[in-house]
Write a structure and sequence with these properties.
This protein is about 50% helix and about 10% strand. It is α/β, with parallel strands linked by helices and about 220 residues long. Strands 2-1-3-4-5 form a five-stranded parallel sheet, sandwiched between helices. Strand 3, helix 3 and strand 4 form a beta-alpha-beta unit. The chain is globular. InterPro entries: CheY-like_superfamily (IPR011006), NreC/VraR/RcsB-like_REC (IPR058245), Sig_transdc_resp-reg_receiver (IPR001789), Tscrpt_reg_LuxR_C (IPR000792), WalR-like (IPR039420).
């Protein structure tokens, strides 16, 4: 079962998300929070796989909560930001804080369920339209490093790992990367897994963020 904590200040929204998610036989909502601090405490208590996090909540927003959850280390859950506006300032803050994906509050039920499953599987959401827009704007706002060069910053990675991370930052799937490099998809997945372990990212979205922050991604 995929264990989920819901964090939203509106009880009716939480009830709706709970109903939608629990239609899936492999998802269980283990707790609900109306503010960020409560969400952090519930994560400690229940050790969920995914937190569905609203970023705007009175009494403690989801931005600070996301940062605290991600900074805790260990088997921390993936944070799925559920927002009303895809290019909201809070979204960029959550991205920098370590969020693993984004969906809009008016998304289709299947999209929400798929997002939770993918985050639980460590994939992140870099191929959703909302995340493409967020990443593009994030890249525009993030100043490129002055020194060292992108190649130097990629030093922990092998040449093939760096190639794969660059293509990942372009929004390519594993299959698309495999076609470009003329290798098996399983090979791409293996190289990407090693790259993520080296740079300390837990999912594809945060690997893309790392690539932009460290001068390895196209601008």
């Amino acid at each position: 079962m995929i264990r989920v904590v819901l964090a939203d200040d509106q009880a009716v929204v939480r009830a709706g998300f709970r109903f939608l998610l629990e239609q899936a036989e492999d998802i269980e909502v283990v707790a609900e929070a109306a503010d960020g601090p409560t969400a952090v405490e519930l994560v400690r208590r229940h050790a969920p796989d995914v937190v569905c996090m609203d970023v705007r909540m009175p009494g403690g927003d989801g931005l600070a909560a996301t940062r605290e959850i991600v900074a805790a280390g260990g088997a921390r859950p993936a944070v799925l930001v559920i927002t009303t506006f895809d290019l909201d300032e809070y979204v960029f803050g959550a991205l920098e804080a370590g969020a693993s994906g984004f969906v809009l509050k008016d998304c289709e039920p299947e999209e929400l369920i798929d997002a939770v499953r993918r985050l639980a599987d460590g994939q992140g959401l870099i191929d959703q339209a909302v995340t493409h827009r967020v990443i593009t704007e994030f890249a525009r706002r993030t100043a490129p490093p002055a020194a060292p060069t992108g190649a130097d910053l990629a030093a922990p990675l092998t040449a093939r790992e760096a190639e794969i991370v660059r293509r990942l930052a372009r929004g390519l799937s594993n299959a698309e990367i495999a076609r470009e490099l003329v290798v098996e998809t399983s090979t791409v997945k293996s190289h990407l897994g090693r790259a993520m372990a080296k740079i300390g990212t837990r999912d594809r979205l945060q690997t893309v963020v790392w690539a932009y922050q460290n001068g390895l991604a196209p601008r």
